[in-house]
Amino acid sequence: MAAAPAAAGSGAGRGRRSAATVAAWGGWGGRPRPGNILLQLRQGQLTGRGLVRAVQFTETFLTERDKQSKWSGIPQLLLKLHATSHLHSDFAECQNILKEISPLLSMEAMAFVTEERKLTQETTYPNTYIFDLFGGVDTEGVTKRLAEKNDFVIFLFTLMTSKKTFLQTATLIEDILGVKKEMIRLDEVPNLSSLVSNFDQQQLANFCRILAVTISEMDTGNDDKHTLLAKNAQQKKSLSLGPSAAEINQAALLSIPGFVERLCKLATRKVSESTGTASFLQELEEWYTWLDNALVLDALMRVANEESEHNQASIVFPPPGASEENGLPHTSARTQLPQSMKIMHEIMYKLEVLYVLCVLLMGRQRNQVHRMIAEFKLIPGLNNLFDKLIWRKHSASALVLHGHNQNCDCSPDITLKIQFLRLLQSFSDHHENKYLLLNNQELNELSAISLKANIPEVEAVLNTDRSLVCDGKRGLLTRLLQVMKKEPAESSFRFWQARAVESFLRGTTSYADQMFLLKRGLLEHILYCIVDSECKSRDVLQSYFDLLGELMKFNVDAFKRFNKYINTDAKFQVFLKQINSSLVDSNMLVRCVTLSLDRFENQVDMKVAEVLSECRLLAYISQVPTQMSFLFRLINIIHVQTLTQENVSCLNTSLVILMLARRKERLPLYLRLLQRMEHSKKYPGFLLNNFHNLLRFWQQHYLHKDKDSTCLENVSAPPLKGVMGGQRTQGLSEGYPGAGLDLGPPGAPQPLPLCPELLHQLLILEGDSVHPVEPGPAVTLCPR
């Protein structure tokens, strides 16, 4: 019985505390009194039911605290904004509050980029900080709700016809598209062609920020990380659904007269740089931490442009709280906008434009885009900007932004370089326009190489329009090679540089192209990076191995140069260690050397014989134990469920080895050796069963009805017109094994249906361990 009063007292206590809590929160309003702030904060952290949002403070408390902390009235304004920004609220009042807040924030932004800004290392911006602290930045929920209204998003495009609302509208559209689940279709925008055609160049560059979202596929993940099984399923689904929204949007843009031409002009227009820009890199670093919002950047540039038009040297700002029609803040101070601001502006524009051009180059209308950007001289224009803007000299330390490390690829300067290299890669890949990267003198050099080697000149070189190539002493490819060889060992640019140069070699093997690069020391540079610097980056190693394979493929001179550089057993062992450390990265080189070995063994030439007898790499690859070791590991590290565009090259390389074994009537032997290796590793049946499944998938994947049949073309003797896999991330033609080979038995003109024979041999070896399957279509690897 004694427990009852205690229980009652406990209950009463809880009741009293509850009443006190209500009182502390200011009754029905739910806002705490100043004396209980710490208590309510603690309760909010523990239970989520106390003080959890800044708008729960009372206006009285905020006003009192503002006297001491000098918050400029921002928390009170945000409190009013919160109260007036709900459905059925007075939006005129909401607009008035925003007009009061805007100058308080814009003044700091303007001071940040003017010459009178603080030079201290740690600059503080109290208004911006307080605005964020008290919940001023809370747009995610709003943009998600707006994104659900497709007609509203389409309507926003019509507001871009007015210069007064263009920047604000563009920023809002970009934010909405960033969270929208389904992409809008540009062909639904009223009068799209007229709208875009009436944009000035500055507006068009900003519009590219929106286009970057609308013409890219909704799946933003790295394509290499998706399995081929998933991609096949998606392709089947896409075939039934028709073109994607991104493809429709690309076609809509390309139908606008003069659209690509204007992009090319934006990408290649020169930046007038003054001599007094010694602090530009410091400014570049600082600005990037703030200038993610294109609205402020372009507002500043609008002032600079108006200033230039009226031949004024400074900008006048009225007192805080005042604002002009264009939304720009003013102060009584007179300051000059730095010239380097214009350079930053141009960098940001070029980033967006180059991205859009790159996406269009990889789209369904690739040939049309190629023709237009060649006609509008994009490549020679970029060549003229290379030294002054794209790859100008700077200190690496200045590129490290606050809150980031030296490996970050997020500063505008770095991003511009990467986007430039990606554009070159897309432009050169399997297209004869790649020779526009050279100048007239370099094209003549290619012709001289072919003449000296007594081989036919490359037809694409003969067909190149000399009026569209690079001018000056060096073409764009040569400039790229020069900076590539000077790049620091730890630089992330090495990957993109190697990919861009490799794309120039990819496609039909050209001896002249290879020699052009060999004469400029590219092979020695690659070997230095792989062997002497002992590169640790897997991405860089993969790109260098791929490039080395394309550079050496079928080229006796390249193998001689390789042997001259790797001239000791110690160097060769380091090279082999790098190859064997990851076959996913190095298997393309293994494939190229294997194919070259087969070519050389069937040639009667003293120069070739000398290379065969002296080259360590060819001798190593020629050994059956080496080939079996590669085969075993290549098959073992991939499975149907994990095949991607990144690692499917391992399967293709293993097929090349087996195709060559079949040509030498060794296919049954190689399969039996694999079976013995299975048993020695204590998992009999697993490897060959896995290979059987891979082979069946390989047939289905590469013989899918939407694949280009020309990708199966493989021929051996000169002139080389087949394609042996190069870029592991660019679809079928780059990953298809065996080009450059006559894979039929010596003297036999008929094609070799390899897959059915391999399946048959596997069934013989494994017996009941592999269930019989119906034979699939023959893979004719040597069509006539």
From TrEMBL:
Matches recorded under InterPro entries: ARM-type_fold (IPR016024), TRPC4AP (IPR022162)
GO molecular function, a single term: phosphatase binding
UniProt signal peptide: none
GO cellular component, one term: Cul4A-RING E3 ubiquitin ligase complex
Domain of life: Eukaryota
Pfam families: DUF3689 (PF12463)
Record-linked PANTHER family: SHORT TRANSIENT RECEPTOR POTENTIAL CHANNEL 4-ASSOCIATED PROTEIN, TRANSIENT RECEPTOR POTENTIAL CHANNEL 4-ASSOCIATED PROTEIN TCPC4AP
Listed name of the protein: Transient receptor potential cation channel subfamily C member 4 associated protein
Organism: Rhinopithecus roxellana
Gene name tied to this protein: TRPC4AP
